[in-house]
Design a protein that fits this description.
By secondary structure, this protein is of the alpha/beta class. It has 13 helices and 18 strands.
């Protein structure tokens, strides 16, 4: 590693490396970055559709694949794309070496399928950079202290890239995808959505956790913790600035609302007329936690002095597992019934300007009411308002809220933020 050369970590998603022609295109972009005087580390996802293909193979064998073997299987997709990209770079006379996560020493905890990174070894990376190599790393994977391969959950290549960039104190972590950056909402649903030149870590963390698929939530957490600038860019366009994710104090002009995030993959479960006694909530959530299921919103409503209704939302993939647990708990606690709906969606309004502005929630609820959308649950924070609604009404709801807050007219004439070195 040349001390005079700043390190850039680039991550390319599945669509960016989906074909051999696209891999050649990525190689050209990497070489261009190298020629600009940077040391370059590239993190790649599996080729588009490959992880889904591997998951289908596992599910066709068993409805509950062993988590350890599942990780061994799905981690192979990235190994294909990393080696192909290294070959493409070497073929263009750009010396490159590829490594899996375990090879370079991405150490994780023991939780298979959604492991967390504990440490990143840098000796091998520094040695290869010093020798002039571009390093290509398989994203989404690591190794636990027992020596087992682990994976970081869908979108985990973002976290791999940020973790490596943080460990090496990189100048910037660039996340290349199939969109130009972060928009006010998904432009595939709302064509009028606007590209944001910048967004705060706090807003991006909320949007990622609420369903926006541009960045994995853990990657944003990690970047914020290490004060690491992250830039979201398109592999396929000439927009060289994209969206810079940075700290709020670097953003001069603060917007009331920055965007709308949504998730179609929600489910809601209620256990009705549970005996209203101390500790019952801990009993319910304890069994959910033991099953390694993450829940999102929680609501409790005392129906009378002796009973209460307990409701929560979660990702739809764990719906049947949670429903079985709740039905068992209902019998043990003497609850009246368990009701559920796996066809709901979450819509969220996000913006740091909400801290100092009143009336945002009432305006949002009024807009939804005007188009006949019933709200099932509500949760808020300083900078976000989330509601659970019927999935069939999601698209019209996003459009109505986007229009009501004039996000399609959001001024984009602010100077895009360049990184201050």
């Amino acid at each position: 590693m040349n001390d005079d050369m700043a390190i850039i970590v680039q991550k390319y998603g599945g669509s960016s490396v989906g074909t051999l022609e696209r891999i050649k295109h990525v190689a050209a972009k990497v070489i261009q970055t190298k020629k600009q005087g940077h040391d370059v580390i590239v993190v790649v996802s599996a080729m588009q559709g490959e992880t889904d293909r591997l998951i289908t193979l596992a599910n066709n064998l068993t409805h509950e694949p062993d988590p350890r073997e599942y990780d061994v299987l799905v981690s192979t997709g990235e190994q294909v794309s990393m080696s192909l990209l290294a070959m493409a770079l070497n073929a263009k006379n750009c010396p490159a070496r590829s490594y899996t996560g375990p090879q370079i020493g991405i150490i994780t905890d023991h939780i298979h399928t959604k492991a967390r990174i504990l440490d990143v070894k840098t000796d091998l990376l520094k040695k290869d950079l010093a020798e002039g190599f571009v390093i290509v790393v398989a994203g989404f994977q690591g190794i636990n202290p027992r020596g087992d391969i682990t994976t970081l959950g869908r979108g985990g290549s973002d976290t791999t890239a940020v973790a490596i960039a943080a460990a090496l104190k990189a100048e910037e972590c660039q996340i290349y995808t199939d969109v130009d950056g972060v928009y006010t909402t998904d432009p595939r649903m709302i064509p009028e959505a606007k590209l944001l030149s910048h967004i705060s870590f706090e807003e991006m963390l909320e949007m990622a956790s609420l369903g926006a698929k541009v960045l994995q939530m853990r990657s944003v957490e990690l970047a914020s913790k290490h004060n690491l600038p992250v830039r979201v860019l398109s592999t396929f366009s000439n927009n060289a600035l994209g969206t810079l994710v940075t700290f709020e104090d670097r953003i001069e002009q603060k917007r009331l609302v920055s965007g709308i995030a949504f998730s179609r993959e929600e489910a809601i479960i209620s256990i009705n007329s549970v005996p209203n006694r101390a500790g019952v909530e801990g009993t319910i959530l304890g069994l959910i936690s033991e099953a390694n299921i993450e829940i999102d919103m929680i609501a409790q409503n005392a129906t009378d002095k002796t009973t209460t209704d307990f409701t929560f939302t979660q990702h739809r993939k764990d719906y049947m597992k949670s429903l079985n647990i709740m039905q068992k708990i209902a019998t043990e606690l003497g609850a009246a019934a368990v009701t559920s709906n796996a066809k709901v969606a979450k819509l969220s309004l996000v913006g740091i300007g909400m801290r100092s502005e009143t009336g945002v929630a009432s305006k949002m609820f009024q807009v939804l009411g005007d188009i006949g959308v019933n709200i099932n649950m509500i949760t808020t924070s300083e900078i976000k308002i989330s509601v659970i609604i019927d999935e069939a009404q999601l698209e019209q709801s996003v459009k109505a809220v986007h229009d009501a807050f004039s996000l399609h007219k959001l001024m984009m004439d602010m100077q895009p933020l360049a990184l201050e070195i």
